Amino acid sequence: MNEATPIRVILADDHAVVRAGFRQFMEAAGDIEVIAEVDDGLQAVQAIQEQNPDVAVLDIQMPGLSGIEVTRWVRANARRTGVLILTAFDDDPYVLAVLQAGANGYVLKTADASDLIRAVRAVYEGGSALDPAITRKVMAHVTGRQAGLPAERLTERELEVLSLAAKGYTNKAIGVQLRISDRTVQGHLAKTFGKLQAGSRTEAVMRAVSLGWLPPGLAELPAE
Question: What is the pLDDT of the chain when averaged over all its residues?
Answer without folding.
Answer: 82
